[in-house]
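Example 3.2
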Amino acid sequence: MTARPYEQRARAEEAARTRMRIIDVVFDRLRTAPAEPIAIDRIARAAGVARSGYAALVDAKHQPDARDHLRAGFRASGEMLAAERDIHRALRSMAQLDEQAVGGVVSRMDAERSAGMARLAGRLAEQGVLREGLGAEDAERVLWVLTSFESFDLLYTGRGLSTDRATEILIDTAERALYAEPYAPDLPRRS
């Protein structure tokens, strides 16, 4: 069920105000300490935006089964992206105009995500769960697309889906694209 038009408008207006606060904080930070890297935690606090931790995302990689790692990672990432949606949008918009305007923070985030997706794809390949003909390198590329802020935000903001629903769609898409056989762990999927 999608939000009513006036709810969507109010959400969009609040998001625009939040983005402007974030941009103001980033610019202020760059004026006062241009040589220091921009930290999302610091920007979030200064802009009065909730900032979730990376603990669940880091914990996901410790799952023995790489498929559970994928699911836990997508869920943690979805929660983090939803909580920081306006920060990510503002930083990515600014980086489109001038990557150095935001101190390379977007490049660093993307590099960390890329390394994480390469590790996950390698684990999936090692555990023999990838579909025939799909190597770890192409699996990493699929994961790269599906774990992007843009993929999540197209569902979350673009379609007005809940964090859980957007994440489940991305998990389902990844599993169908990557696995030789459907994965049905003992634990039920969140609805």
